[in-house]
Amino acid sequence: MAKQNIETQALDYGMEMIGGKWKPIILYHVNKGTNRFNKLFSEIEGINRQMLSKQLKSLERSGILDRTLYGEIPPRVEYTLTPLGKSLLPVVEAITQWGQNQIAETVVISEVVEVNTISEINEEPEIKEVSEIKEVPEVKEAPKAQEIPEVKKDAEIKEAPKVPQNQQLPLF
Predict the structure, then answer these.
(1) How much is the CA Rg of the chain, to the nearest whole Å?
(2) Long-range pairs for 114-120: beta carbons < 8 A, 24 or more residues apart
(3) Which long-range contacts (CB under 8 A, 24 or more apart) does 55-60 make?
(4) What is the pLDDT of residues 5-59, one digit of tens each?
(5) How far is residue 93 from each of residues 5, 23, 24, 96, 126, measured CA to CA in Å?
(6) Counting runs of H as helices and runs of E as strands, what totals does the chain give?
(7) pTM greater than 0.70
(8) Omega of the bond leading into 74 within 30 degrees of 0 (cis)
(9) Phi, psi of 12 (to 5 degrees)
(10) Residue 142 Cα distances to 107, 135, 145, 146, angstroms
């Protein structure tokens, strides 16, 4: 029982370090050489500036990324992987490989479904002989629609009572 608890704690710790949607993607891009904020922002599809900043700060606090601020105008900031961050790369690469395999499998499965569907469409329909023809039931006439009453003419429509502008109407 204690061993499972330790394993669960280790998994929780690992997921806290790199879990979520964005952290593994950020680690992947920083490892590939993208280490400036604006470059990361332009390469990571779907992330907003606030989320990227939050995730970078979290990875920096965790000791996975180093943030180097250069004293230039305009200021320049670069992110690099720490030794701890580099030790996570096999995990990120394994996730990447697994995802690529799943995508490839999905494409193969969808192509097989398409081929089966096309072959089913191209097959000649099977014609069966009918030994008995049953009588077709007599079609009854549909009931007639009810007549729509005439719309009242302008003279018959009563106008709403006018309320003076200063007078307030009761609230319900």
Answers:
(1) 35
(2) none
(3) 55/20, 55/22, 55/23, 55/26, 56/26, 58/23, 59/23, 59/26, 59/27, 59/85
(4) 888 888 888 888 888 899 999 999 999 987 999 999 999 999 999 999 999 999 9
(5) 27, 13, 9, 5, 52
(6) 6, 2
(7) no
(8) yes
(9) -60, -45
(10) 51, 21, 9, 12
